[in-house]
Amino acid sequence: MIIDCISDLHGHYPELEGGDLLIVAGDLTNTDKEEEIEFFFKWLHNNPYNKKIVIGGNHDNLLQTYKNEFMNLHCSESEITNIEYLCDSGTKFEGIKIWGTPWTKTFKDMNPKCKAFTCDTEEELAIKFSLIPDDIDILITHGPPYGIFDCVRRFPNDIPERTGSQYLSDKIRGNTNLKLHVFGHIHEHGGKTIQYGTTTTMVNASIMNEFYEPVNKPVRILL
After folding, report:
1. How far apart are CA 44 and CA 98, in angstroms?
2. Cα–chain center distance at 193
């Protein structure tokens, strides 16, 4: 199965090769306007994949507001036949179990306009992530687990800081079926993959770097 992974588009929509499954792990538009979301889904419709799965991110306030209704309000039925939006929910594709969840934790001085799908504490995140089934094959989250592509440097001291969720890390460690975990959010590590354990490929699929430049290519996984 050919799987292409992208995240943190922020209004930039790369050329895609097409394949079996496209995963979009949140932060879809530049300024979170309705016309931008509508354009995103029309762009998504025109890409040649058998299945396209989308989750939200902390920049996607309109997705949180509209919940599952946005595509129905702004896209024709023919445009969304093979697109699925996941929010603490799952689906199956060619026998593979997939779960999507958009939640991340707030941080100091976070832009108040960028707090969609956020929690203030790890305990609140744990409640959200506890919904993730133990037998899924592919997990899509917006943010990373603790210790994997989650390190940022906070100004003005430029001190490295881990931002991933410890509960999420514990959750995926206990899933021996997990083949692929796709996330973004931390632009500094966009476009990177790593093998986790013996069965799981971890992907930070952000196409943006830390300067919001779309320099990272989509990540292709063969499953």
Report:
1. 19
2. 14
What pTM was estimated for this model as a whole? 0.95
- The one-letter amino acid code at 145 reads P
Determine the Cα–Cα distance for residues 188 and 198; give it in Å rounded to an integer.
25
Q: For the domain 2-222, what is the CATH code?
A: 3.60.21.10
- Please tell me the distance from the alpha carbon of residue 104 to that of residue 119, in angstroms, as a whole number: 6
Q: Characterize the bridge pairing of strands 96-101 and 89-93.
A: antiparallel
Give the pLDDT confidence score for residue 79 in this predicted structure: 73
Query: pLDDT digit string (tens) for 69-80?
Result: 767 666 777 777
With left for phi above 0 and alpha for psi between -120 and 50, is residue 104 left, alpha or beta? beta
Question: What pLDDT is recorded for position 148?
Answer: 96
> Which H or E run includes 91?
strand 89-93
Mean pLDDT for 22-51 is: 94
Q: Which two tokens stand for residue 206?
A: 């952000």
- What is the domain partition of the chain in residue ranges? 2-222
Closest CA to 56 of 88, 92, 33: 88
∠ Cα 171 175 179 (to 5°): 115
Q: List phi, psi (to 5°) of 112.
A: -60, -20
